Amino acid sequence: MEKPVNDIVLRVEHLKKYYPVSGGFLSRGNKFVKAVDDVSFQIRRGETFGLVGESGCGKSTLGKALIRLHEPTSGEVWLNGVNIAALSNRDFAPYRRQIQIVFQDPSASLNPRHTIEAILAEPFIVHGLYKNDRAQMKKEVERLMELVGLDSYMLNKYPHELSGGQKQRVGIARTLALKPDLIVQDEPVSALDVSIQAQIINLMVDLQKELGLSYLFISHNLNVVYQISDNVGVMYLGRMMEITPYQGLYKNPAHPYTKALLSAIPQPECQGESHRIILEGDIPSPVNPPAGCRFHTRCRECMECCRRKEPQLKEIAPGHFVACHLYD
Amino acid sequence: MKEAVLEMKQESRLKKLLRDFGRIYTHNALFAIGFTICLLWVLVAIFAPLIAPYDPIAQDFTQRFAKPSAAHLFGTDNFGRDIFSRVVMGSRTSILAGFTTVILASIFGTIYGGIAGYAGGVVDDVLMRIAEMVSAFPALILAMVITSALGSSLFNTLFALVIVSWPNYARVVRSMVLTIKENDYVAAAKALGTKRSRILLREIIPNTIGQVMIMATLELGNAILNFAGLSFLGLGAPPPAPEWGAMVSDGIDYFFNWWIPTFPGLAILTMSVGANLMGDSIRDLMDPKLRKNF
After folding, report:
1. How many CB pairs under 8 A join A and B?
2. For domain A8-327, which CATH number applies: 1.10.443.10, 3.40.50.300, 3.40.630.30, 3.30.1390.10?
3. Mean per-residue pLDDT for B38-52?
4. Using 50, 70 and 90 to split pLDDT, how confident is the model at B122?
5. Global ipTM
6. Greatest distance between any 2 Cα atoms in chain B
């Protein structure tokens, strides 16, 4: 598919999301969990941006801060040229149509009390679409079902009567109702069977081609991200460590953390020997991240300057950004 | 063809509910007993004028303190009034009072607790402290204070009963809402741009209804008991009207005519036990996930 090069759907600038730590009386207000700490990236129209990192690195928080399910602490989120992070809740309401989210657990994201039809009609009702035309609304709901490959007889069913894959299809259909430009996919397949994962991913790819959607695809599964992404961002402890076109992720990963992540993917043995890079120690606490480069406590290439100075993202090849002193 | 299938599905909704009900009724003895007792009382209340052989307030001094017999099934009281007729007619007041109290208190308590739980923060603190203040007083005493301050009438008694019972619902609903609001479907609704009031009413509160129904059914027994208690103390329906609690109260002056307090007392007992049994088992009917298992 052709992609207009400069058409940017989402540009995130220095986004931060801190959670205050409610400690004792004395330390109150002093400490924060820096879940997302100064992250910048951008997504072009029709593109998929994969976001990977181990659990607790802040990738889900980032996704939820973008659609303001968690209010960002600071930073800018430019959606179609509008800084939605700076809008009041009331002013943001109309822009919600442009950015939607698919959740990780399809069972938890559908209200058990509503039928599938009620769930899919909700976006229209909330935004006052087809107000006086129930028949048209019903048709739209049926069209959504068709889009995600579900039979319309399921409309009268309740979520608990559907399989996990079907529920996730309903979750996707709900986000499509408002014809958004960008969909945040928060680990949309990690709660599903492997065979169903492939189906859902294929569905997403098809929908993207058909409707010209952009995705922020959050996952801890590098293989899944590799399959679907145009660009991949690697996060560690609330920071973006590397942003690379998807080919670059496997061919020439630059950051030592990315290399370690890649080496941790299980390989079939016939593909030759794999060099495992074993990371020592645990992920440090995001309340008190290490000074300098956040990764230096576990990095095998750690140098003197890494302990003192925090590296910034630098472009080392076209579209390939790394935050590491090795490339200074 | 597909249309036909759809229509069949919709038509069978009610049938499915009835079938589920039948299954619960035949599989759950406690529910069956409780439901039967309540149903009987409701039927008695509806057809009371047809069942009662005498006028419940007609006095007959030739028949004072008559023992239970074929003519007076439950005997007569100090005014020669037929106790059976009075118990039957009294069921109307008691059941009406019980249901009204429970329905009003649960609606108010649910919305109150829902707002507190969903809003959180200062709103939550203030609202719940008020609720706690109300529930800090012993229910019956608070109800007595309210009724005697407003003057004793049926309406004021019901008002007092609603005032003392809504904090229970508010507390339970609030704590449920605290967990429900963390669900992804609430986040999804928020992401769609749903208004907070709509999220509360459409996404959150429907998920508390099962619990509220159970509470309401359990509280039904309580409400009837409290109403009888207030009437017993002379704060319910005004005297000549037949009311179970008031009848028991009348009876204690005539201790050796045991039938005077016993039969209205038994009526109170069966009604509240029936409601409690039903409340314990009604959750299974309300929870769509558990429905399958019956």
Report:
1. 70
2. 3.40.50.300
3. 88
4. very high
5. 0.85
6. 77
